[in-house]
Amino acid sequence: EAGVVQSPRYKIIEKKQPVAFWCNPISGHNTLYWYRQNLGQGPELLIRYENEEAVDDSQLPKDRFSAERLKGVDSTLKIQPAELGDSAVYLCASSSRSGGSADTQYFGPGTRLTVL
Amino acid sequence: GENVEQHPSTLSVQEGDSAVIKCTYSDSASNYFPWYKQELGKRPQLIIDIRSNVGEKKDQRIAVTLNKTAKHFSLHITETQPEDSAVYFCAATRGSNYQLIWGAGTKLIIKP
């Protein structure tokens, strides 16, 4: 079974430029998460999707960040414009909810973003 | 708000000895507690998890204990090996929306 796929793995951009990250979750997983992980810290949830619906985006900085999961499978996270403080690893995770309880989240390899 | 505290931030143990990492949580509705291992530059990987209806779970050299009354849970690694060196994160669900609240991580160093 293929794991969570993310691209690109690394991205270096100038501040004020746009950037986009792509995630393909594990087949059959209806829940998809985008996290940001700063160096030396735990992952911080940005947005969670149940199928194509964003059910928790309370921590997404909506002035510059946007996300979509149009067909309930792949997802894209965009930053426009990027700021220096956005440098981090952006992790995508997926899970298969069942029985009304939390399920294991499987992470992708992440995209390491450097904003210069 | 919901908070997960993790201690210690760094733990150095001799190879072969045991390591214990502790976490406390604040939301009494939390019902799922996973532990993730993250090696440098790699993705977090689940190593063990426990649900609120269970007090202890073991998987070979790894075990997790949960004390719901005290709101704390611990990771135990026995007979530590060099490949156990990594950062370990605990997490707890936030109420009923299945969001995970993460601890700050523990850097485990196994000394040869």
Fold and architecture overview:
The complex is a heterodimer of chains A (116) and B (112). Chain A is mainly beta. Chain A has strands at 5-7, 10-13, 19-24, 31-37, 44-50, 53-56, 65-68, 75-79, 88-95, 106-107, 111-115. In chain A, the strands form two sheets. In chain A, strands 2, 4, 5, 6, 9, 10 and 11 form a seven-stranded mixed sheet that branches. In chain A, a hairpin with a 6-residue loop joins strand 4 (31-37) and strand 5 (44-50). Chain A is globular, with a radius of gyration of 14 Å. With 112 residues, chain B is mostly beta strands. In chain B, 0% of the residues lie in helices and 58% in strands. In chain B, the strands form two sheets. In chain B, strands 2, 4, 5, 9, 10 and 11 form a six-stranded mixed sheet that branches. The N and C termini of chain B lie far apart (41 Å). The mean pLDDT of chain B is 93. Classes of the chains: A mainly beta (116), B mainly beta (112). Chain A binds chain B through residues 31, 40-45, 48, 55-56, 91, 97, 101-102, 104-110, and chain B through 31-32, 34, 42-46, 49, 51, 89, 91, 93, 97-100, 102-105.
List keywords for this structure.
A: mainly beta; about 45% strand; globular; B: about 110 residues; mainly beta; 6-stranded mixed sheet; about 60% strand
Structural class of chain A: mainly beta
Q: Indicate the low-confidence ranges of chain A by residue numbers.
A: none
Q: How much strand of chain B?
A: over 45%
Largest chain interface and its two residue counts? A-B, 21 and 21 residues
Q: What is the helix tally of chain B? A: 0
**What is the CA-CA span between the terminal residues of chain B?**
41 Å
User: What is the string of helix and strand elements of chain A?
Assistant: EEEEEEEEEEE
- Tell me the series of helices and strands of chain B, N- to C-terminal: EEEEEEEEEEE
The helix count of chain A comes to 0
User: Rounded to an integer, what's the Rg of chain B over CA atoms?
Assistant: 13 Å
